[in-house]
Specification:
Distance between the termini: 82 Å
Number of strands: 15
Radius of gyration: 24 Å
Largest sheet: 8 strands, mixed
Low-confidence stretches: 18-25
Strand content: 15-25%
Length: 404
């Protein structure tokens, strides 16, 4: 018969591991979309419709998380990623987002695209307490941590970009006569107002002399460009996206109009410029905060090489110079880092806590020296930007960064 001492030792040997495992389990915290083995993430982007060239963001995300999963996932958990088609339509974005939250039960959404589609789900996601992170839109409304703490942009805020471009115009063309084409929605207006305000603040003679709009469903923007060219404007501020951007760049050349051209950073992707005719983009001025792929300048850059290795293995049908795809890669890497820093506390509240403190993280998409600037009380994604001019083959980037 075993002694009392041996019995106690036997009991201790059984109980101690149980207590330890319960302590470990207690340290793990999960909300819907997270478990010991899996993390679910969602996104809505236009895989079809007028903005379909941005669908590559989702395909890159799928490839990146597949690669991570093959290496063991994040902190031992595999990523299940849903990238859903919203066709750049607000009603479809609502339908897809509700499915992601209520049926798929994702932990968070990230990298969704478009001011109008994301505005349509903004209140819903905040009421549900679901993180809406690294949005592919720089609308000013996303910087509202007090009232809408669950939403954060992933691009430079449009007003920041617009004000810096206006300062540039005043500096190089103090008597500028500006013609503006802008998308007839919140995206367009977020660029328009701050740009005009900054021109007025400068107190010089630079002014806007013509404004025309277009809708995403317009088949062409030829008539708008003809009117702007006739206005006598010597600066063209092109606040467009996707197909309309390519059409506008090409039409300016066809008309023989030779203004100083300004373009929003989100529309400078190589695929957009290629569709316009790369030679037609020469001289365009834009804000810059990112590297490029498929050009000699960056071919030996470690971050670019990381993307190229992913592209070759998982996405060989995507062109090597697809900058939009590279942007998607940078956001997927950033989202993975947020989850990595969350450890075993995979609650939605902790995801937001970690994301809103990412003021030190350098995305592989960013120029050297630039990091995210998120803080819990200020969701401005980046405060440091550069002016760049397209030379017909590549972007000449200013030596010094510009701060709003």
């Amino acid at each position: 018969m075993p002694s009392r001492h041996n019995s106690l030792c036997w009991v201790a040997a059984i109980v101690a591991p149980l207590i330890a495992s319960q302590a470990v389990a207690a340290d793990k915290k999960y909300d819907p979309g997270a478990s010991d083995t899996e993390i679910k993430l969602g996104q809505t982007v236009p895989h079809s419709g007028p903005g379909s060239l941005y669908g590559v963001l989702g395909r890159v995300g799928e490839a990146y998380f597949q690669m991570l999963n093959e290496k063991g996932g994040i902190n031992g958990r595999k990523i299940k990623f849903f990238t859903m088609d919203d066709a750049y339509s607000a009603p479809k974005a609502v339908e897809a987002t509700r499915r992601l939250v209520e049926q798929e039960e994702v932990l968070a959404l990230f990298g969704s695209l478009g001011t109008a589609p994301q505005t349509a789900v903004h209140k819903y996601l905040n009421s549900k307490g679901v993180p809406q992170l690294l949005l592919n839109t720089g609308a000013s409304k996303w910087n509202d941590p007090k009232n809408n703490k669950w939403t954060m942009a992933g691009l430079p805020l449009y007003p920041t970009e617009a004000r810096i471009l206006a300062k540039y115009v005043v500096g190089v063309k103090p008597n500028a006569k500006v013609g503006i084409l802008y998308q007839n929605d919140d995206f367009g207006r977020d660029f328009l107002g701050p740009f005009k305000d900054e021109l007025a603040k400068a107190g010089g003679t630079a002014k806007v002399i013509a404004e025309v709009t277009y809708d995403l469903t317009d088949p062409t923007i030829d008539s708008q460009l003809i009117n702007l060219a006739k206005s006598g404007a010597d600066v063209f501020y092109n606040i467009t996206t996707g197909k309309a951007t390519s059409q506008a760049i090409r039409k300016v050349v066809e008309l023989g109009w030779k203004p100083l051209q300004l373009l929003s950073a989100g529309s400078t992707g190589r695929s957009i410029l290629n569709a316009a005719g790369i030679e037609n983009a020469k001289g365009i001025v834009a804000i810059r905060y990112s590297k490029e792929v498929g050009v000699p300048r960056w071919e030996n850059d470690p971050d670019v090489m990381g993307f190229e290795a992913l592209r070759k293995k998982y996405l060989p049908n995507i062109d090597p110079d697809n900058t939009i795809a590279y942007a998607g890669y940078g956001q997927a890497v950033t989202m993975a880092e947020i989850l990595r820093r969350c450890g075993d506390d995979l609650t939605r509240a902790n995801v937001m806590k970690v994301a809103s403190s990412m003021n030190d993280f350098h995305s592989p998409y960013m120029l050297d020296g630039i990091t995210y600037s998120f803080t819990p009380d200020n969701y401005t994604p980046m405060k440091t930007l550069y002016i760049s001019v397209f030379n017909g083959k590549d972007w000449d980037i200013s030596d010094k960064p510009v701060t709003e």
